[in-house]
Amino acid sequence: MSVHEECGVFGLYSEKPVNASGIAYYGLYALQHRGQESCGIVVNDDGLFTAYKDLGLIGEVFTEPVLSAFPEGTMAVAHTRYGTTGAT
Questions:
Q1: Burial class (CB in 10 A: 0-12, 13-18, 19+), 22
Q2: Is 49 a domain residue?
Q3: Segments forming the whole domain that contains residue 76
Q4: Is residue 24 part of a domain?
Q5: What pLDDT was estimated at residue 2?
Q6: pLDDT in tens, 14-59
Q7: What's the number of domains the chain is made of?
């Protein structure tokens, strides 16, 4: 088995609420080369999870209105997908 650059994952944790979706956006943007088919972000705000995902490049999916709809949070996980098998 060899290592391939397929998909990207970014995560963050903060003790205080921060603009987690904005930070995750920039983390994903740096990983754009790892997957250009789809992407998503999930933010945890004191146990309430807010998620958004869609097909497309990070800059196309996460527009300002989409990012501003996320609450501040203490945790976030984001992904970018590079299809290897199956449908996107």
A1: middle
A2: yes
A3: 8-81
A4: yes
A5: 54
A6: 999 999 999 999 999 999 888 888 999 999 999 999 999 999 999 9
A7: 1
> Is 38 within 8 Å of 81 (Cβ atoms)?
yes
Q: What is the pTM of this model?
A: 0.87
Active-site residue (options: 2, 4, 7, 53): 7
Active site residue 7: yes
Does residue 1 form part of some domain? Answer: no
- Give me the amino acid identity at 80: T
Residue 78, pLDDT above cutoff 50: yes
What is the side-by-side strand order in the sheet with 48-55?
8-18, 73-81, 38-45, 48-55
Q: Two tokens at 81?
A: 């997908």
44 inside domain = yes
